[in-house]
Amino acid sequence: MEGGKWEDLTMDVLVNVLERVGIESLLLSIPFVCKSWYKATLRSECWRRLDFSEISFNFHFVLRVMDTYHIHNLHATRFVKSVVKRSNRSATLLTIPSWGTEEALLYVARESPDVRSLVLPYDLSCDHMIKIPNLISNWKNLETVQIGSCFQMQEVLAQISNNCKNFFALTITKASIGSTEASAIVNLVPNIRYLDLRHAWMDRSFVVTILEGCKKLEYFDIRHCTGFREGDLEILNLAANVRKFKYEGSRLFYRYQDCGCSYR
């Protein structure tokens, strides 16, 4: 910083900067820079983004935490609870830890009532995903959800429909969208405004179903999907009122060479 020092920043400004930093840095780096930075990390505002996907909870990471904080053992549940406590129930973004325990999952849901953005990673276990629908009611202010697969999608959307009146955005990573999934989107969240289905397997008829049923869509991303052609005229006509419609790279059939493999 030209003309000043980082340690001279007011606490509010410093906290505003640090709340954009990941969990690992907030725990293992920033508190040890200087006293003012340490004090800033004690503020709950720095812990509003609970993105546990940034953490590789492996042997090396556990040793670093144990050595830094002079503790003799550290298991996943204890670690998750300690991080969530720092947020003082003010977290607005939550990425569920795929390596967490059931106890940790239930604790996070209970102690993060103000979550606006929820991320369910693709490698979240089936046992944990089955429990997610029953936890949605903890997040009344939920606005956006990113799901790693279509497993339990219908159940999740049903609970969102019943409990989350501010919900407007859904992202499904590399989804397989069939009749059940398309109908769930249309019937359970018909007022959705943002929908990202990039790299999905989806027949053109289901794209039509979504466009005809979700009249308030402002952003619809179906780039690089398989199941319909990029220049499908019916789809383009139905999407004419969608403010930002992205469809480039979609194709009718999957091409084997697109995976980077070669057939011999």
UniProtKB/TrEMBL annotation:
Q: Which domain of life is it from?
A: Eukaryota
F-box domain ranges (all copies)? 6-48
SUPFAM superfamilies assigned:
F-box domain (SSF81383), RNI-like (SSF52047)
Q: Which Pfam families match?
A: F-box
Name of this protein: F-box/LRR-repeat protein
Report the source organism: Actinidia chinensis var. chinensis
